[in-house]
Write a structure and sequence with these properties.
Structural class of chain B: mainly beta
Low-confidence stretches of chain B: 7-22
Strand content of chain B: over 45%
Oligomer: heterodimer
Largest sheet of chain B: 5 strands, antiparallel
Helix content of chain B: under 10%
Radius of gyration of chain A: 20 Å
Largest sheet of chain A: 5 strands, antiparallel
Shape of chain B: globular
Shape of chain A: globular
Number of helices of chain B: 1
Mean pLDDT of chain B: 91
Distance between the termini of chain B: 34 Å
Low-confidence stretches of chain A: 1-24
Number of helices of chain A: 1
Number of strands of chain B: 31
Chain lengths: ~400, ~400
């Protein structure tokens, strides 16, 4: 009897996986690829805008992406908006949420406020219709994610060192601020770590915790998340640490929810942690240096993502030898040991541009798209699904100051 | 018949609107006291003594006789450090200052709660609680339309605005502004510290006193959306190290008065409502020239008759040698808005962080944080002078006082 039950459970789970898999992939393998940009400034360096002049972007762009062939359509403006530097999509693919990073300023020294906008996605055209805009309750808001129930957006406010949770109403628009947590403290780097700088926030696979990477504190903070009311509260112990001066930026769980991977911006270290979902703790397993030992210059690692197969990890690195000389910029490819979660280097691939602040693996796991902020291009790489290696396809599209990519399946 | 209908209609209108015509003095008021429940006072980074308060307290008050009933708990709530009453007198809003922390060093978040007021018993019923979007939230005010609550978040250097729904509960955030910079004093001015926010009489501007950066900010306020945007110029500078804390407009909306915490200076400013500009007219000193020690001025208020200004001063001569604390009384020149000192009166306790004038202008309630008492003073309507009464309420760590007319 018990065996029949197990079989039934297995079949049911398989069915669920199949269903979820179905909703995640599009008919005809067609996707809308949304690109978030900076419209107000290129890049801030030593408190001044830096790069090849001002951005000419007008907001969020959309391009048709055909995952079977890797074909990329001409990007079109999907919504006019100031500094949509990070985007996230609701799990039912009906809504897109974008941060508007400091629209009144030209960079962190002049911060006043950042905002979050809710958009409805037009499934015929991919165009975005603004639902509403609310303050993010912070400055230099640089990250947004959605909890598993789809009822809350979570944002990291880099400038003011806080995180906010905002309720999503039935119609997809944004409502009350349900949680606000101000980080307090500093770490060893006197220029960037003299105050807290939250860089990302995302929920655990079971939706019971939220992980906050604080670049200023060298801490990976773990909060209890209550999906009933959208509240955050600190657990005990409330954080894991990284190597001092590292600067935790982005974090990702593996698909099975057993391991967490923390990318630190300045050190370029990926910390591998074992995740205990019962107790909400991260325990150090491995510390991987993505920067070569003989590298001289400055490193700013940016994005981290795990392949849908769970077998490979990708992370991007923005590097300079001096004020004028690039280092060069790379995307690191790592194989993940399925039993203990540890990483081993496969390769460091060139990004086909300058300053890969972000990249994204398409939902079918066939391609990786690198968003090169300073060279104004999104470059398409083919992923070898046996080795994880990246091969340049020769395809790319021009988008001014691209800094975030998200996919929505096209349902014709 | 038509005439009777008119009379009935008139009677109906009178019944409907008289209760809301709160400019006419009520015979009895509820007076609410906000307190700290979690800590009393931080001294060199450590809490100095513990509080036994349970939240917001309420007493009945008769302005004709000065009679005040024994305070009772109106609502249990953590650290209701600042209270404000909705213009319709039906709702009360309270800041909950950093409930998870023991003071600014351990900030996580502050909250704001909406309560409905039982106009017969004075008891408060919680409607909802939301994060203020900042830490060490120490000040609340409501715009003239009654649709927004504006907050100063001292700890995280921000001001925020939340929408008030028709049922009095709190809704989404409509504005957030972060202040940057620092002032001269390394202890209190290492970062921006907005201490108060109030709309202008015409509801088109919001004035923010920032203790950390020695500036009085002027924001444009859009009552249609609840948004704030920086005015041009965005601020008026205060004296270095002064520490702007609270600001008040005169009844006619011609002058503004900025009280600076550390310097104890009240700056009189001419207010131009058409341009949204403040122009300095006078610096009135509340500290005696020969005073030696540290001064922390706190509250400022103008008498309902527009003739007198009151401000409180917490002083110490080092360590725990508190005092001499005082409440300063100034007369206001009706033409120029300038101040001249009438007297400085001991507040009847230690650390008068807050005081309030009752709506009839007959009494001043002095809230003495460290001695845990509220002393009533009788106000001389001709001279503005304060005469202490024998009414002395025991309330642990009182720091905010507001009045609501009672109905019975």
């Amino acid at each position: 009897m018990r065996r029949i039950l197990y079989t039934f459970c297995f079949a049911f789970t398989l069915g669920l996986v199949f269903l979820v898999g179905r909703t995640a992939t599009a008919q005809n393998n067609d996707y809308f690829m949304y690109v978030g940009t900076y419209t107000g400034f290129k890049h801030v360096h030593h408190s001044k805008p830096y790069g090849r002049g001002e951005s000419k972007s007008k907001g969020i762009y959309v391009s048709r992406f055909h995952a079977a062939t890797g074909e990329l359509g001409k990007p079109e403006l999907a919504a006019e908006m100031i500094n949509p530097s990070f985007l996230t999509i609701s799990s039912d693919h009906r809504f897109l949420y974008a941060v508007s990073e400091d629209p009144l300023s030209v960079g962190p020294p002049l911060d006043h406020s950042s905002y979050v906008s809710a958009f409805a996605i037009d499934h015929a055209t991919g165009k975005l219709r603004l639902l509403n805009t609310v303050p993010a309750s912070g400055t230099s808001t640089c990250f947004i994610s959605i909890d598993k129930t789809g009822k809350y957006v979570m944002v990291a406010n880099f400038g003011s060192g806080s995180v906010s949770v905002i309720h999503i109403k039935e119609d997809g628009s944004l409502g009350d601020l349900t949680a606000f947590i101000q980080d307090v403290g500093h770490s060893v780097d006197p220029t960037i770590q003299n105050e807290p700088h939250t860089h990302s926030i995302l929920v655990s696979p079971d939706n019971r915790y939220a992980i906050v990477s604080d670049l200023g504190l060298d801490k990976v903070l773990i909060f209890h998340f209550d999906a009933e009311n959208g509240k955050l509260s600190p657990p005990d112990p409330p954080f894991a640490t990284v190597y001092p001066g590292g600067g935790p930026r982005h974090f990702t769980f593996d698909p099975a929810g057993r391991f967490g991977y923390q990318l630190s911006e300045m050190s370029g270290i990926v910390d591998v942690y074992a995740w205990d979902p019962e107790r909400g703790t991260l325990t150090g397993v491995q510390r991987v240096h993505t920067v070569p030992h003989d590298f001289v210059g400055s490193n700013h690692s940016a994005e981290i993502e795990i392949h849908p197969s769970g077998k490979f990890l990708y992370e991007s690195n923005r590097r300079t030898k001096s004020e004028t000389e690039r280092a060069p910029d790379t995307i690191g490819v790592y194989a993940i040991d399925s039993s203990n979660g540890t990483l081993s280097l496969v390769e460091q691939s060139l990004t086909g541009g300058i300053m890969p602040r972000s990249f994204k693996i398409d939902p079918t796991g066939t391609y990786l798209l690198a968003a090169n902020e300073l060279s104004n291009n999104v470059v398409l790489f083919k992923i070898d699904n046996a080795t994880g290696r990246l091969t340049k396809t020769g395809k790319e599209i021009g988008v001014d100051t691209p800094v975030c990519i998200q996919f929505v399946p096209v349902r014709d | 018949m038509k005439r009777i209908l008119h009379l009935v209609l008139l009677a109906f209108l009178v019944v409907c609107f008289v209760p809301f015509a709160f400019s006419a003095p009520a015979s009895e008021y509820f007076v609410y006291f906000g307190t700290y429940t979690g800590f009393t006072y931080m001294n060199e980074g450590l809490p100095a003594g513990g509080s036994h308060s349970k939240g917001i307290y309420v007493s009945r008050f008769k302005p004709a006789t000065g009679e005040v009933s024994t305070p009772e708990v109106a609502a249990e709530i953590v650290n209701p450090a600042f209270l404000v009453v909705h213009p319709n007198q039906r709702f009360l809003y309270a800041a909950t200052e950093d409930p998870l922390s023991l003071g600014p060093d351990f900030d996580h978040a502050s909250y704001v709660s909406a309560f409905s007021i039982d106009s017969k018993t004075g008891k408060l019923t919680l409607l909802n609680t939301l994060p203020t979007g900042g830490t060490s939230t120490c000040y609340l005010s409501i715009d003239k339309t009654g649709k927004y609550v504006l907050m100063a978040n001292f700890g995280s250097s921000t001001v925020t605005v939340l929408r008030i729904k028709d049922d009095g509960s709190l809704g989404e955030q409509t504005a957030f502004m972060k202040h940057l910079g620092r002032g001269r004093d390394p202890a209190f001015q290492s970062q921006a510290h907005p201490h108060s926010i109030d709309v202008s009489p015409d509801n088109r501007y919001a004035i923010v006193s920032d203790l950390g950066v020695d500036k009085v900010f002027i924001y444009r306020f859009d009552a249609a959306t609840g948004a704030l945007s920086p005015d041009e110029p965005p601020f008026v500078a205060a004296e270095s190290g002064g520490g702007p804390r609270h600001f008040v407009f005169d009844a006619a909306g011609k002058f503004g008065y900025a009280l600076k915490e550390m310097s104890g200076v009240v700056t009189v400013l001419a207010w131009d409502p058409s341009k949204g500009t403040l122009t300095s007219v006078q610096d009135a000193n509340t500290l005696a020239a020969d005073f030696i020690g540290s001064n922390d001025s706190a509250e400022i208020a103008i008498h309902p008759n527009g003739k007198f200004l009151y401000e409180s001063n917490r002083r110490s001569r080092g360590g725990s040698l508190w005092g001499p604390d005082s409440i300063g009384v100034f007369s206001i020149d009706p033409v120029k808005g300038t101040l001249s000192e009438v007297e400085q009166v001991p507040p009847g306790g230690t650390m008068p962080r807050n005081f309030a004038l009752d709506p009839t202008g007959s009494y001043l309630f002095s809230a003495n944080e460290l001695t845990g008492n509220v002393l009533l003073f009788r106000i001389d309507a001709k001279t503005g002078r304060l005469a202490p009464t024998t009414t002395n309420l025991k309330i642990d760590v009182p720091v905010s006082i507001v009045f609501v007319p009672s109905q019975r």
